Amino acid sequence: AQSVTQPDIHITVSEGASLELRCNYSYGATPYLFWYVQSPGQGLQLLLKYFSGDTLVQGIKGFEAEFKRSQSSFNLRKPSVHWSDAAEYFCAVVNTGTASKLTFGTGTRLQVTL
Amino acid sequence: SQTIHQWPATLVQPVGSPLSLECTVEGTSNPNLYWYRQAAGRGLQLLFYSVGIGQISSEVPQNLSASRPQDRQFILSSKKLLLSDSGFYLCAWSWGGWETQYFGPGTRLLVL
Questions:
Q1: Least CB-CB distance to A106: which of B43, B59, B99?
Q2: Which of A11, A48, A105, B30 could make an SS bond with A4 (beta carbons 3.0 to 4.6 A apart)?
Q3: Rounded CA gap, B48 and A112, in Å?
Q4: pLDDT tens-place string over residues A23-55
Q5: Strand partners, A88
Q6: A chain contacts of residue B49, beta-carbon cutoff 8 Å
């Protein structure tokens, strides 16, 4: 069965600093990978996704992620963090089939200091 | 464009009471629909998914049930709530062969 690991439960960065959130997956075939963001008390918003092709994918809000098959990773990055980026970030892999079922990591909570 | 609604936004219920949470999707037809639960400080757990009217698949045994009476309506229910049912419930949809899921705003349930 597929699984997703987000090793960092909580990360604090200063506004304007760069950010990298780690995600490792376990999946037998070529994975479909996602990053979602959740602000407190809100639903999940899709940041970006990787299905195939270019291993560096661009998303909304200035985020990008790089798929590295050799490392089974799909890390999320942003060159310069804004205070509004403070939220919880979830990495997910989908089990394709009749209905696409997402398996989520446990999330990384990002705190941004001014 | 597609929109997904959930209500109520917040719910406080006593132990043993029934539950009904509703999710509706606008702007698409024959979506796949999903119910997730997010317990405090934890990730998201898939509870149910549906590929069509009346078709429900359960991912984990639990005190909850789901129904899909109409194409774009997905209901999460319980006959008797437990304390452990407290959490944040999220509905999501995807379409056809596309794997991307889009989430609703969620319902926060507190069972006392």
A1: B43
A2: A105
A3: 35
A4: 999 877 778 899 999 998 889 999 999 988 889
A5: A38, A109
A6: 99, 101
Give pLDDT tens digits for B10-57: 999 999 999 999 999 999 999 999 999 998 767 889 999 999 999 999
Question: In this model, does residue B98 exceed pLDDT 70?
Answer: no
CA A57 to CA A35: how far, in whole Å? 11
* Buried/exposed code over A37-49 (b: 16+ C-beta within 10 A; e: otherwise): bbeeeebbebbbb
Q: Do A105 and B42 touch (CB under 8 A)?
A: no
Burial (0-12, 13-18, 19+ Cβ within 10 Å), B87: buried
Chain A residues closer than 8 Å to B101 by CB: 94, 100, 102
Bridge partners (DSSP) of residue A36 are A46, A90
Give SS3 for A80.
coil
